[in-house]
Write a structure and sequence with these properties.
Blueprint lengths: L1 E6 L3 E8 L2 E9 L6 H7 L4 E6 L5 H8 L5 E3 L9 E2 L9 H13 L5 E6 L2 E7 L4 E9 L1 H10 L20 H27 L4 E5 L8 H4 L2 E3 L3 H13 L4
Length: 243
């Protein structure tokens, strides 16, 4: 069985896969890996993969080095089941790359746009030949709310949950609708623009920032919150000769 670890800016996601089947997934705050002893006790883990977009603390490194099976540390030099055309692979976020792999594994032979609404909103494009062309990065939902509060003198910190109106009637609803509709229109703009060039484009939405589309938009996308974890598992199996 495979141990999959994705260490992000705000949380660590851990999953156990049996082949292509995800058996369990957990989320820890920051770089915590407190779940490892329990997972090792319940599953016959034989190998693992680690992807991180942050520098790891000594405690985290020690926990990983103590595992009694080999770990693949995902980097820009790791062999992949898709072709990476990114010009600076050493600077590419490994979560972005894993999401692209996960989406293409789901729908090989299609042009794919991956939208990851996490700490940042990222856009990744994989063509029908399995070539990853790169993508773009913009602020995520919480980052937008916090920036409006931090970089102004009087705008309050607003939560995503709460009253929503087509046009805000007070400062709170104006900020909430501005951020959420702004993200929706931004994402739909990318989809519309890409579809002009790639009419058969498939769009995947993933991420953990609590952002979602309304029902009319959901009809044209695949939503999979575990796309990065599935992509990491795919990369691990590829490097172990299992696909």
């Amino acid at each position: 069985m495979n141990l999959i670890i994705d260490i992000g800016n705000t949380a660590t996601k851990v999953a156990v896969f049996d082949g292509d089947e995800m058996r369990e997934t957990l989320t820890e705050n920051g770089q915590a890996l407190e779940c490892l002893p329990s997972l090792r006790a319940r599953y016959p883990l034989t190998c693992g993969i680690v992807a991180t977009v942050v520098d790891l603390r000594e405690r985290t490194l020690s926990d990983l080095e103590a595992l009694p099976f080999p770990l693949l540390w995902l980097s820009g030099r790791t062999p992949l089941p898709i072709t990476n055309l990114y010009e600076t692979p050493g600077t590419l976020g490994m979560d972005r790359l894993a999401a692209a792999v996960g989406a293409y594994a789901h729908s090989p032979g299609h042009d794919i746009l991956v939208v990851d609404a996490g700490t940042c909103v990222t856009y990744e494009f994989v063509d029908a030949q399995g070539q990853y062309h790169g993508g773009n990065i913009s602020p995520g939902m919480q980052m937008r709310f916090k920036a409006l509060n931090a970089y102004t003198g009087r705008l309050p910190m607003v939560e995503a949950e709460g009253r929503r109106l087509p046009m805000g009637r007070d400062t709170e609803t104006a900020i909430r609708e501005g951020v959420l509709k702004g993200m929706e229109y931004e994402i739909m703009g990318y989809i519309t623009s890409m579809k002009h060039k790639y009419p058969q484009l498939l769009t995947f939405l993933t991420g953990g920032d609590g952002f979602s589309f309304d029902s009319s938009v959901k009809s044209i996308i695949f939503a999979d919150r575990y796309l990065v974890l599935k992509g990491l598992n795919r990369i691990l199996n590829y490097n172990n000769g299992r696909i």
